[in-house]
Amino acid sequence: MKVIVQMHPGSSQAKVEKIDEGNYKVWVRAIPEKGKANAEMLELLADRFHVAKSSIRIVIGKTAREKLVEIIGGGK
User: Fold this and answer.
1) Domain assignment of residue 76, yes or no
2) Residue range 37-58: average pLDDT?
3) How far, in Å, CA of 71 to CA of 58, rounded?
4) How many domains does the chain have?
């Protein structure tokens, strides 16, 4: 499954919010430096979709706030 993620780094909270059936907003505490924010985002999405962190990859947008993320397996 592929979803679009709107990421908000440097937030005071870490959470995932479903916007609709393929769009999510993710707030992370980490700043976008050396992949720290992306790593935290992958951990939050792994928890949300009940999959291993290795089952999630950023397809497009590694340095952008809007990303296309592929999730292999898991449920909602």
Assistant:
1) no
2) 96
3) 9
4) 1
